[in-house]
Amino acid sequence: MEKMAVGLKVAKDRLKVFIELLDRELLDELEIEDLFQLLEKEKISSDLIVLDETNWKLLLTEHQVIQVAEGISPTNGQDGYINWKLSFDSQLSEKEKTSFRDVKKIPSVTEGTILAEIVPPTEGSSGLDVYGNIIKQRKGKKVTTKAGKNVELNENEFIAEKDGKLSVTDKLIQVFDMFELDGDITLKTGNIDFVGSVYIRGNVPSGYQVKAQGDIHVIGLVEGAYLKAGGNILINEGISGMDSAVIQADGDIKTNYINQASVEAGNNLIAAKSILHSQCVAQESILCENGSIIGGTCSAGKQIVVNNLGNFANTKTVLALGINKNKREELESLKQELAKLTENKKKLQFLGKQLHDKKEKLGNLNAKERIMLLKQRNMYDKSVEQINNIQAEIDEMQYSIGNYTDLEVIVKGKAFDNVEFIFGKYSRKLTREYKYFKSYIKEMEITIDSL
Q1: Where, if anywhere, are coiled coils annotated (predicted)?
Q2: pLDDT digits over 350-368, tens only?
Q3: Residue at 106 is within a domain
Q4: DSSP bridge pairs for 357
Q5: CA atoms of 200 and 337, how far apart (whole Å)
Q6: In this structure, how many other beta carbons lie within 10 angstroms of the beta carbon of residue 10?
Q7: Tag placement on the chain: N or C end, fewer CB within 10 Å?
Q8: In this predicted model, what pLDDT tens digit does every residue of 327-341 receive, in sequence order?
Q9: Are β-strands 253-265 and 269-282 bridged in parallel, bridged antiparallel, or unpaired?
Q10: Is 39 a member of any domain?
C-alpha cells in the first residue's frame, strides 16, 4: 500500500475539512497542487477552500493538522414573539393593602388600549457543507396566540375593545368584566357562573360551584368545591379538598397548598408549600419548589420541580411526564373529526366534478345548479381549511407524544422509597432514598443525575 504524506479529515457536521500529517519525510515532496487534487478527488467545493497556500507546509509541520476548507453554517430564523405594552406587576404596595389578605391587584385595561404587538419571525438563511450541498435552516415559528373576547387584532397589534380585566394564556389574549364578592360564598350568594372573571374576598365552602370564562381569584380557602376557569385560578390560602374538590383552569393554577383534591391546569400548576394525596395535571409544569409532594399522582407535560418527594412512611407517590390521558382522548377525538371531514371533502369533490362535467357537456347550468356549484365551492374551501387546521393540531400532539427532550423531574431535597416516575411509556420506581437530583430520559431509559 502506497504511503501518503497527508490524510484528509471531514468534520462530522461536514462544515470543516482538515489535512493531517501522516509522514514527515514524504511532506517535502508534496506540492500545493497535490493538495488541491486530493480535495478535488474528495469532491470538496473549491469555493470553500481556506488553505494558506504560502505557509501550509510550515503550519502542517508545526501543528500536525491544519484546516483547509470551511462550509457556511445555516442561520436559524428567530421565532416570532409578543412584545407587551403593559406592565404585569400585580403586587400591591403597602398603601394599597386594605388587609393582610390583599396580596394581588387585578390588572385592568381601558377600551382602545394597545395591549401588545406581534413581532413576526425571521426566515434565517441556509448554509453550505464543504461539498457544496445546501444545509437548510430552521425558519422561525409564528406566534399562535390569538385575540379572544373583547380584544381586536389589528394588523400586528392587540387592542382592547372594552374596559375590563386582562387575561392571558398561551392561546388567547382576552379582556373580561369582573364579578366581585366581598366575603364567603353562602346560601345567599349561591353558585357563581359568570362570563368574566370572579374575585372572592373570602372562602369557597364544600358543595359550591364557581365557574368563570375569565380568571378566578379566591382570597381565602377552597374546600370540597368545584372551580372552573377559562383563564387562571389563584387561591391565596389553599385547597382542602376532602376528596371532593375539583379545580380546573385553562391557564395557570397558583395556591399555597393542595390536599385531597383533583386539580387540572392548562398551563402551569404552582403550589408554594405542598401537594398531598391529590390528582394533579398540568399541561406545562408543576412547581412545588419549596414544598413536598406526598401521595397521589402528579402529571405534567414538560417539567415537575419539587423540594421533597414522598415521605418516611413510603407513601406511594407517582410523577408522570409527557402527554396525559386527557390529551390522548383529545387526540383521538381530533382524528375522528379529521376522518369525517376528509370523507365530506371527497363527496364535495365528486359533486363539483359532476356539475363541471355537465357544464362542459351542455355549455351551461340552470339557475338552481349554478347556486349549487357556488355552495359546493364555498363548502369545499371551508372543508379544506378545517382539515388543515385539525391536521396541524394532530401533528403538534403526535410530536409531543414521542418527544422526550424537554421532560424532566427536579428534586431539590429528598425523594423517598416507593416514588414512581413515568415518562411516556417508560417507568421507574425508586427503591431507596435519593437527594438533590434531576431525572430525565437518556438513551431510552429514565436516568437520575445529581444536581
Answers
A1: 324-368
A2: 888 888 888 888 878 788 8
A3: yes
A4: none
A5: 39
A6: 17
A7: N
A8: 767 878 888 999 999
A9: parallel
A10: yes
298 and 275 Cβ atoms separated by less than 8 Å: yes
Distance CA 227, CA 210 (A): 5
Strand partners, 429: 420
C-alpha cell at 383: 372543508
- Which residue, 358, 347, 354, 355, is CA-closest to 380? 347
Question: Is residue 256 within 8 Å of residue 239, measured between CB atoms?
Answer: no
Calpha distance 177→111 (Å, rounded): 12
Dump pLDDT digits (tens) for 245-272. 999 999 999 999 999 999 999 999 999 9
Q: Of how many residues is the chain composed?
A: 451
CA distance 240 to 23: 78
Q: Is 219 within 8 Å of 101 (Cβ atoms)?
A: yes
Picking from 212, 247, 246, the residue whose alpha carbon sits closest to that of residue 231 is 212
What are the cell numbers at 94? 403597602
Query: Residue 162 carries which DSSP code?
Result: S
Residue 251 sits at the vertex; the CA angle it makes with 264 and 198, to the nearest 5 degrees, is 95
SS3 322: coil
What are the φ/ψ torsions at residue 439 (nearest 5 degrees)?
Answer: -120, 135
Domain interval for residue 141: 81-125+136-175
Distances (CA, A) of 131 to 42, 66, 76: 9, 18, 21
Instruction: Give percent helix, percent strand, percent coil of the chain, each to the nearest 5.
Output: 20, 40, 35
Which residue's entry shows cell 470543516?
A: 16
Residue type, 158: F
CATH number of the domain residue 389 falls in: 1.10.287
Q: What are phi and psi of 341, to 5 degrees?
A: -65, -40
Please name the amino acid found at residue 401.
Answer: I
The reply to whether 379 falls in a domain is yes
The CA distance from 434 to 422, in Å, is 17
pTM: predicted TM-score of the whole model, two decimal places: 0.58
